[in-house]
Amino acid sequence: MTLHIDHDVCIMCSRCVEECPYGALTEEGERLRVNELCTLCGACVEVCPVNAIEVVEEPRDATEPADHSGVWVYGEVERGALHPVVFELLGIGADLAEARDGALEVVAAGSGLDALARELSGYPVEAVHLVEHPALVEYRDGAYAAALAHLVRRRRPEILLAGATARGRSLMPRLAVLCRTGLTADCTGLKIDPQTGHLLQTRPAFGGNVMATIVTRRHRPQMATVRARVMTPPPAGEGPPPRLHRWSVPEAAVADPTEVARRAPGQEERLNIAEADVLVAGGRGLGGPEGFDLLQELADALGGEVAASRAAVDAGWIPYSRQVGQTGRTVQPDLYVAVGISGAVQHRAGMQSSGTVVAVNSDPEAPIFQVADYGIMGDYRQVVPALISELRKGAGDE
Ligand SMILES: Cc1cc2nc3c(=O)[nH]c(=O)nc-3n(C[C@H](O)[C@H](O)[C@H](O)COP(=O)(O)OP(=O)(O)OC[C@H]3O[C@@H](n4cnc5c(N)ncnc54)[C@H](O)[C@@H]3O)c2cc1C
């Protein structure tokens, strides 16, 4: 998109120059000029009495590679604190910034984000950019994407990373469209091509059978999302908080027709499975939802959480938030117990980086045994109670 001025129609009334919140319009001789500060907010379009200005579909120079530098990580805030995936992205973000000789910075939108920079003390982050506005108190895709796009256009980062969380998956595609650039979702590897300086964005494709490396050659920023627990967070050191830059956005830029009517508490208060150290996952082999009661007992005995295969989720035995795999969550617990799960490639794509894998299955040919460190062949209705009983004995409960 770009701002088009019809100089034959323009009467040089100066209203647009006065109205522009960014000083992006200037009068030079008999002509109106638009400079790089323009954010396409549309304020000038509305005020023009002769309709000489319009925002038109056309590639903007701002999306092209020149003049972009630095790596940004989107600072997603969850329940008042940075989401753990943000810290995971700081490690890879720092590597990329070093390879490109640029700065690693965090960008966040919302309101009341004062503590955010302090949370980043001791991490290799040079600056935090905050876009705060009353319209951003409640999370809404449109307003957040517009606010971040506004900042991306002004600061021109070369790379923008975000967690492939529910919010990241919803927000980043919108932001990419507003910035007219590409986005690679669910990356498992990110590095800089030493020849071209492009970001090599690697992600599994075709159910994890192929690793595809995607390059955004002509547009900036190069945007990628990464699932939780795929990257390792850098150790937190000692140090002051990064520099804080506060940015305002014009009302017009964050105007969003969506209204938050009410907030409904989440159905479950338990830990996100992507953050659990121990997972006990059940599949179609459980035979029904009641099988998960038994798995919950085992998870409790191990201090873990219950997860599931897609077949169990599709059957309505357990909510989608518990699904592990290609179309569910990627998990990396220290211990993953797969019960009544065959181990289809799409399931393995979400759990194959787990520490120790224990499989319980009645079929000795089940593929899950190929990725298991310990395999127990048998009916889970006998195996799982025996495991619970042994664990309780070990804990002195029986
Ligand atoms: C595009 C796409 C995306 C997908 N995404 C995902 C995803 O994110 N996650 C995912 O899990 N799947 C996903 N799938 C589905 C995947 O292909 C499999 O269909 C699914 O994982 C099978 O689930 P399951 O192992 O629970 O069931 P099944 O394959 O039916 O396996 C059940 C297992 O239970 C065993 N069993 C039966 N009875 C008992 C018993 N009494 N005791 C012990 N073991 C028993 C059987 O031997 C069998 O191995 C996807 C598929 C596609 C096409």
Please tell me about this protein's structure:
The protein is an alpha/beta fold and 398 residues long. The protein folds into 3 domains: 2-58, Alpha-Beta Plaits, CATH 3.30.70; 71-254, Rossmann fold; 273-394, TPP-binding domain (Rossmann fold, 3-Layer(aba) Sandwich), CATH 3.40.50. The chain contains 12 helices and 21 strands. Strand 2 (25-28) and strand 3 form a beta hairpin. The longest helix has 16 residues, at 84-99. The mean pLDDT is 90. Flavin-adenine dinucleotide is lined by residues 283-285, 309-312, 323-328, 340-342, 344, 346-347, 350, 360-363, 366, 379-380.
Attribute tags:
Rossmann fold, seven-stranded parallel beta sheet, 12 helices, 24% strand, Alpha-Beta Plaits, 398 residues, 21 strands, binds flavin-adenine dinucleotide
